[in-house]
């Protein structure tokens, strides 16, 4: 096939950008000599940079939008207008759909189910599909491949770790006198997904009894650094929040025994590596955002407050309103009260059983 220039648009969170990697990987296999660019929000740039197979990244900034909206829109318009053979948009927002329409003669996009919102999009798009919140994000993201007859497996592509990164991470672990270890990831991109401090610290203190090093991971965001100062001290607790890049986390996860922590990008990275995952969820819709098991190529559809399948265990509060899918109880990215009702003892027992089975 002749060389194709493809624009993939994904204007949402870190997890959405990570899951676009499977679509990109399949496009690269089918269009052997293609060039793929990404159009993303600028707060997801770090994960976008390490997705394999990307030629160029185009950023949209909400800060610039608030300051001088039309200047930024003009700049993006100039960068993408009719520059591509194909544009694939993985979100149904008006802006991202418009970008896909103007970027290429052939455009594919997710659209809303309600025709009142999506009718004009359907008129201008070459192909469209309904973004189904009852199906996992990976299933939604791979849907565009069907319009081109591309066969695919429902697998999440893991991000490869460079040899140099693995050497650096291995040396760091050696200096810490750490061999077998667990990852504990207490933070998230949003406050409403974070386990309360009292519960978090109780869980960490319980996990320390396992006599296995626990590496507490996190980035340099305001949320991460606030949590860093609240992590309890302990002989087996190694607080590396703010001390590793996202690529180094991928290396740590690759070498770890298991992931314990919040519903966030790092959880999905660990699951993509087929690691044992113990995930603490707040109000998030599990049908769409539970960790995907590449072993069974499935997620969870269960209604229990504990979900177990293949290498995944999920803890979610046994509340009638869970999962509500809101950004916190007030839907404004504040506290999720349901997280207060997940027992640290329950999480600890599940991890302990896993460790005992390893015969370390």
Short recap of the structure:
This protein has 13 helices and 13 strands.
Protein described:
The chain has 360 residues and is α/β, with parallel strands linked by helices. The protein folds into two domains: 5-148, Rossmann fold (3-Layer(aba) Sandwich), CATH 3.40.50.2000; 163-358, Rossmann fold (3-Layer(aba) Sandwich), CATH 3.40.50.2000. The chain is 38% helix and 18% strand. The chain contains 13 helices and 13 strands. It has helices at residues 14-30, 45-49, 62-80, 94-103, 115-124, 137-142, 163-175, 197-207, 222-228, 246-255, 265-272, 286-289, 344-358; strands spanning 5-10, 35-41, 56-60, 84-89, 104-111, 127-130, 182-185, 214-216, 237-239, 258-262, 276-280, 306-309, 312-315. Helix 7 packs across helix 10 and helix 8 (197-207) packs parallel to helix 13 (344-358).
Summarize the main sheet. Answer: 7 strands, mixed
Identify the CATH class of the largest domain.
Answer: Alpha Beta
Specify the number of helices.
Answer: 13
Number of strands: 13
Distance between the termini: 52 Å
What best-fitting shape do the alpha-carbon axes yield?
A: globular
Number of domains: 2
Predict the CATH topology of the largest domain: Rossmann fold
Q: Which structural class is indicated by helix and strand composition?
A: alpha/beta
């Amino acid at each position: 096939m002749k060389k194709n220039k493809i624009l993939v648009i994904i204007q949402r969170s870190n997890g959405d950008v990570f899951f676009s990697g499977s679509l990109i990987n399949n496009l690269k296999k089918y269009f052997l000599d293609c060039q793929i660019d990404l159009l993303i929000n600028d707060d997801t740039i770090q994960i976008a940079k390490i997705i394999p197979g990307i030629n160029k990244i185009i950023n949209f900034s909400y800060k610039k939008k608030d300051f001088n909206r039309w200047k930024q829109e003009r700049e993006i318009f100039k960068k993408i207008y009719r520059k591509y053979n194909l544009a694939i948009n993985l979100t149904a927002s008006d802006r991202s759909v418009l970008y896909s329409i103007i970027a290429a003669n052939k455009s594919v996009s997710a659209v809303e189910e309600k025709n009142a919102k999506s009718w004009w999009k359907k008129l201008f798009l070459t192909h469209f599909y309904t973004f189904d919140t009852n199906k996992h994000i990976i299933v939604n993201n791979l849907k565009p491949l069907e319009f081109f007859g591309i066969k695919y497996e429902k697998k999440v592509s893991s991000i490869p770790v460079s040899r140099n990164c693995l050497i650096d991470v291995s040396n760091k672990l050696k200096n810490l006198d750490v061999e077998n270890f667990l990852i504990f990831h207490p933070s998230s991109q949003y406050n409403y997904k974070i386990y309360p401090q009292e519960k978090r610290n109780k869980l960490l203190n319980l996990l320390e009894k396992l006599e296995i090093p626990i590496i507490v991971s996190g980035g340099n965001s305001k949320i991460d650094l606030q949590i860093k100062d609240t992590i309890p001290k302990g002989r087996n607790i190694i607080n590396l929040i703010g001390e590793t890049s996202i690529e180094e986390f991928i290396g740590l996860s690759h070498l770890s025994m298991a992931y314990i922590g919040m519903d966030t990008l790092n959880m999905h990275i660990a699951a993509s590596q087929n690691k044992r995952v113990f995930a603490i969820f707040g109000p998030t819709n599990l049908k769409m955002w539970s960790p995907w098991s590449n072993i069974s190529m499935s997620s969870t559809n269960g209604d229990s407050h504990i979900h177990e399948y293949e290498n995944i265990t999920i803890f979610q509060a046994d509340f009638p309103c869970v999962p509500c899918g809101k950004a916190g109880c007030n839907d404004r990215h504040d506290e999720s009260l349901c997280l207060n009702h997940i027992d640290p003892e329950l999480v600890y027992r599940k991890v302990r059983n896993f460790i005992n089975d390893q015969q370390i």
